[in-house]
Write a structure and sequence with these properties.
The chain has about 280 residues and is of the alpha/beta class. It contains 9 helices and 11 strands. The protein binds NADP nicotinamide-adenine-dinucleotide phosphate.
Length: about 280
């Protein structure tokens, strides 16, 4: 998302120069008048506060969640956006059922690793796609049953073979226009297409009459599901609980000083990174 905003694919109504970033973890410095339940010194995390590449930031109290002692800062910072997104995709947008085949793009990325684990927690079968051989081990260690290496949108045939020609129940695709048609072709009858990545480019106009096999297709945005402070706290508590119990393993693929944010962007754009990248002020 940060790369897309930097490249001018979103937030264009905010004039430049603008501060990137939406999520983070920190300590409360001061609480505004009338704020209850948040005190200076308390550890908090957040998932959507534009301008989060900052040492200090003003955030509405309703957007903050307290971080339990069992969860360290790095873990909390890693699980907010990608964890809430992954749990929305696998439990709400398409509630994965035991035995379902799910196809996960960018399966060694921060989102892909968490999505894989949540699908496995629900009893699903994961076929992951990664762009290079080096990422296979990470994806498999996290639970992917099979991993396909492809960076050009040519994964469909192999994935169909792995499902004995039936196709998958759900495909999670945020990887831009190159993968869209292949993902569509991979769905079985009445399958679900969870599309989520506008900043890597959309599929262009779609003729609804051209959609095959009674599939359901939609643009999943976690903010639509987690739209109240109560839901934010409940969903975050579930993620923190899974993490503290060892059910969800958080993979931090790299840490960069905040001053080296440009390098973090370049590394991610090179498609060589795995897991979550953190900026540390
Ligand atoms: N709808 C929502 O609610 C929501 C929420 C969070 C994120 N997102 C979207 O999910 C996608 C992944 O987000 P993320 O920030 O959490 O990162 P991430 O999961 O860590 O994903 C990064 C991975 O994306 C793949 N990728 C493919 N094309 C890329 C490109 N041109 N530049 C960089 N990476 C590319 C790479 O994997 P391979 O090289 O293996 O393909 C890379 O490892 C983004 O499109 C983001 O906008 C949507």
């Amino acid at each position: 998302m940060d790369i897309g905003v930097r490249q001018g694919m979103a937030w264009n109504e905010t004039p430049n120069p603008k501060i990137l970033g939406v999520e983070g973890v920190g300590r409360v410095v001061a609480a505004g008048d009338g704020v209850e339940g948040l005190a200076p010194g308390q550890r908090v995390a957040w998932v959507y506060a534009p301008g989060s590449y900052a040492e200090r930031i003003a955030i509405p109290a309703t957007s903050l969640v307290p971080v339990p002692d069992a969860i360290d800062d790095r873990t909390a910072a890693s699980v907010m956006m990608q964890g809430l997104t992954a749990s929305h995709f696998a439990t709400d947008f398409y509630p994965v059922q035991p035995g379902d085949f799910a196809f996960v793009h960018a399966a060694a990325g921060g989102l892909g690793l968490l999505l894989t684990q949540i699908i496995k927690l629900r009893g699903g079968h994961v076929i992951g796609r990664v762009s290079s051989e080096e990422k296979i081990a990470m994806s498999e260690e996290t639970g992917a049953d099979q991993v396909i290496v492809d960076a050009e949108g040519r994964f469909t045939e192999e994935a169909l073979r792995l499902t004995r020609g039936e196709g998958v129940h759900v495909v999670y695709d945020g990887s831009g226009p190159k993968t869209f048609q292949g993902s569509l072709d991979l769905l079985r009858r009445s399958g679900t297409f969870c599309w989520y990545g506008p900043v890597l480019g959309g599929p262009g106009p779609l003729d609804i009459m051209s959609l095959p096999k009674s599939i359901k297709i939609g643009y999943a945005t976690f903010l639509d599901h987690i739209h109240t402070p109560e839901l934010l706290r409940a969903r975050t508590a579930q993620l923190f609980g899974w993490t503290a119990d060892g059910k969800l393993r958080i993979r931090i693929g790299g840490e960069y000083p905040l001053a080296d944010a440009a390098k973090a962007h370049a590394d991610m754009e090179s498609r060589k990174t795995t897991g979550k990248l953190l900026l540390v002020p």
